[in-house]
């Protein structure tokens, strides 16, 4: 386990999406975050106390979380210097970047010298097996998206907590660096060798017979040329009986690919259902989650209503408006499935 509490790193970041790991921790685990560290040229904030490295250590932070992401997941020289400063101040360092902390010689040497730890969150388990697609017991929901970074983790967490609030046993299954830090475990699916992706998700959400739900955090998009492979493996390994489509209506192009349009929602939904049926023949869509953070409340509600009318599915912003309409649809689906089984 990574020692808490955390000091959350923003560094020199100017991309609001790029700090999603730090932001996710600030939103979903604020009780273990003492503050944020950012340089003067960083225009972003998480709304936490702004602390220097030394102040963070004095406030009790045991780990600096490098909660940022960039194309390729690499560490710049400034980030390495900040991580060294954290080690010198007595903090461990955690990161979910593709470039491993342990592979930076200065960090590895300083951590060993000071008796501190480097946590590479994107290390997949070593004993993964290939998927087999055999039917397994249990209820599973997977979030899918029109693009990467459109709110799949937020939606999955909100749905998990919503079910728990209704007295339903539910577990969040993390598949990305942010989710893993929030949940305390999971599989960093984009770091898994392609042949083992579906098997990794079968292991992450194995058969269960307690009538509870596994809610699996989606990654990427079937329509994103860079990440469609990960999304496909997730669909097949999850064997979901339900999917929820996530979308950012303010997005004008695929993240990282300027000029490439996002898919139509109905088209995206249809393809995800079609692909999921390889291992889950009876999969159903139960709702749509929109990220309406750039819209005012009236515009956001109107957009959700239009989307609901067009797709015939409950639509909401899980952060602004909650997830009750989707949970109603999900539990109605479960009840209907039970009735069908009983009638046979």
Automatic annotation (TrEMBL):
Residues 46-124 form the D-glutamate N-acetyltransferase-like N-terminal domain. It holds the Pfam family DUF1611_N. Residues 130-327 form the D-glutamate N-acetyltransferase-like C-terminal domain. InterPro entries: DgcN-like (IPR011669), DgcN-like_C (IPR035086), DgcN-like_N (IPR035402), P-loop_NTPase (IPR027417). This is EBNA-1 nuclear protein. The lineage of its organism: Bacteria, Pseudomonadati, Pseudomonadota, Alphaproteobacteria, Sphingomonadales.
